[in-house]
């Protein structure tokens, strides 16, 4: 898939519903996880991701190709999430838990357990950071966006995102150290 752009073009211009299906399959999980970092609730994030895809399917906004398709899609999702937050200011947190993987060797089990515990600690610490810190960390480290793409999604300048990222890392490190997490420089 051409970063989703060709599938969207097929859907928008030719009415090929399979193009929209491909986009949903390719991007729904990542979009839901990103929106969870925005709204703080996975059920709400799932609904907002669905709203994002419904908007694509009904209003068919024009993709101008000024950024990657994924960046454009996440920006639409973020705007929908912000509109939602304006209407409903209540926030609730849901811890993020991954399903355990089946591992055969005892050493691997122990290593996987320690890694899982570390992930839980990092997610809990991130939840205590301001929302814009959570968003920038999520976009860059969990979704793999560049600072430039994150800036487009968050509607900030590149310099602003880099500054937020610096402060977010510093705050996360401080939060982790407060909780007794041993930080190892690599």
Order of helices and strands: HHHHHHHH
Strand content: under 5%
Q: Radius of gyration from the CA trace?
A: 18 Å
Average of pLDDT: 83
Number of helices: 8
- What is the approximate shape? globular
Main sheet attributes: strand count, strand direction, barrel closure: none
Q: In terms of per-residue confidence, which ranges show pLDDT below 50 for 5 or more consecutive residues?
A: 90-105
Structural class: mainly alpha
Number of strands: 0
Distance between the termini: 35 Å
The percent of residues in helical segments reads: over 70%
Structure description:
The chain has helices spanning 5-14, 17-39, 42-58, 69-87, 106-127, 131-142, 147-154, 158-178. It is mainly alpha-helical. The protein contains eight helices and no strands.
Supply the key terms.
186 residues, mainly alpha, 8 helices, 0% strand, globular
Summed up:
The chain is mainly α. Helices cover 71% and strands 0% of the residues.
Topology:
Blueprint: H1 5-14, H2 17-39, H3 42-58, H4 69-87, H5 106-127, H6 131-142, H7 147-154, H8 158-178
Helix pairs in contact: 1-2, 2-3, 2-4, 2-6, 3-4, 4-7, 6-8, 7-8
